[in-house]
Amino acid sequence: MTKAITAQSLRKVYPGNPPVEALASIDVEIHDNEFFTLLGPSGCGKTTLLRLIAGFEHPTSGKLDMFGESLLDAPPYKRPINTVFQNYALFPHMTVSENIAFGLQMLGTPKASVKATVGEMMELVQMSHLADRQTGQISGGQQQRVALARALAPRPKILLLDEPLSALDFKLRKQMQLELKRLQTETGITFIFVTHDQEEALTMSDRIAVMSNGAIRQIGRPREIYDRPADRFVADFIGDTNFLPAEVISITGETARLRLASGKEVDAHANGGAQSKVTLALRPEHAELTHDGAGLLAGTLREVVYFGTDTHFHVTLDDGSDFVLRRQNSPTEDISFATGDRVGLTFPAGAAQVLKD
Ligand SMILES: Nc1ncnc2c1ncn2[C@@H]1O[C@H](COP(=O)(O)OP(=O)(O)OP(=O)(O)O)[C@@H](O)[C@H]1O
Predict the structure, then answer these.
(1) Which distant-in-sequence residues (6+ apart) come within 8 Å of 348 by Cβ?
(2) Which keywords does this Swiss-Prot/TrEMBL entry list (predicted)?
(3) What does the pLDDT look like over 67-97, one tens digit per residue?
């Protein structure tokens, strides 16, 4: 697989008193033609990594290559990389087509070629009908499309997108998520997308890098990140998770035999663990509720919350800890549990995952 971007021991310290270590030591490979997402909470270093790739900032140390060649001596304008910013940065008094043409004209592209590409780009983002409208007079979603078209027009090898959907309302954001994925597939350009929204990352990405405190905690496909979170931070940041203390009895290959707080035994994904006391991560939708405390763990049903699509059951386990279980609703099946009931929990072998820390 061709590597679009390779970062090795990439570090960035912003000078100041005290200095800020925005990136500690990043190692990552981003493949050509990949929708790659940097996901993490505010301040974890996502934008800094993007700015290093774009060339707006210089690393303190480390290596940064694009298609096998060092990027470090190339000024931003010489990198075949474009950026779509959160605020779009369009020229409000120029029309849609003028905005899209702007970058191409700056590059000295011949007039006929500019016209053809602008037409093609407007079609790609479905904005042809508003070609002559000033961008100050179109909606936020439409501005987003123009910003994308403008960034894609010079056919960059890599497109950087810094929280480009955050200004849009919920419905439009959902729609644009699908559009972005379509645009990436249709153009074949490598997209590096920054977000702190885990759902956005899970729906659009080929792979995700989960970041915290200037470090990458895990890189994987959305399903791997969700089903097999490497550590507590990832399990907590992505989706909802129950954390259960457990004791390791034995490990065979990828499977750990564990004893739960109740004394009952269960198999879980070992995640390379070797300690004797571990924490298990279990998703709320992977557990089942039983009556009368039967199953692996027992407790009392504290709250039942109906959400339309599913119902959340809040259980206080016998060791005093909280557990949340989610069950999809069905029009033909009633909820046969009530607050105060003595309940139990079961989950299949392999549903839970041992966490690294
Ligand atoms: N120019 C700068 N000078 C000093 N510190 C900076 C500068 N830019 C960012 N930082 C700091 O570096 C760290 C990483 O910032 P960065 O903007 O990369 O995070 P982020 O994950 O993109 O956050 P957000 O989601 O809030 O945009 C933060 O602690 C931030 O305060």
Answers:
(1) 286
(2) ATP-binding, Cell membrane, Membrane, Nucleotide-binding, Translocase, Transport
(3) 999 999 899 888 999 998 877 788 989 999 9
Residues of the chain with CATH 2.40.50.140: 240-354
CATH topology assigned to domain 3-232: Rossmann fold (3.40.50)
Gap from CA of 272 to ligand 1 centroid (Å): 33
pTM of the model: 0.90
Spatial CB neighbours of 223, under 8 Å, sequence gap ≥ 6? none
pLDDT tens for each residue of 182-229? 889 999 999 999 999 999 999 999 999 999 999 999 999 999 999 999
Beta 310-317 vs 297-306: how paired, if at all? antiparallel
Q: Which residue has the least CA distance to atom 7 on ligand 1? A: 14
To which residue do tokens 């679009």 refer? 4
CA of 47 relative to ligand 1 center, distance in Å: 7
User: Residues of CATH 3.40.50.300 domain(s) within the chain?
Assistant: 3-232
304: β partners: 313
Q: Which CATH number fits domain 240-354: 1.10.10.10, 2.40.50.140, 2.102.10.10, 2.60.40.1120?
A: 2.40.50.140
How many angstroms is it from 239 CA to the middle of ligand 1?
24
Q: Which residue CA neighbors atom 4 of ligand 1 most closely?
A: 14
62 CB less than 6 Å from ligand 1? no
Q: Which residues contact 120 (CB under 8 A, 6 or more apart)?
A: none
Which amino acid is it at 114?
V
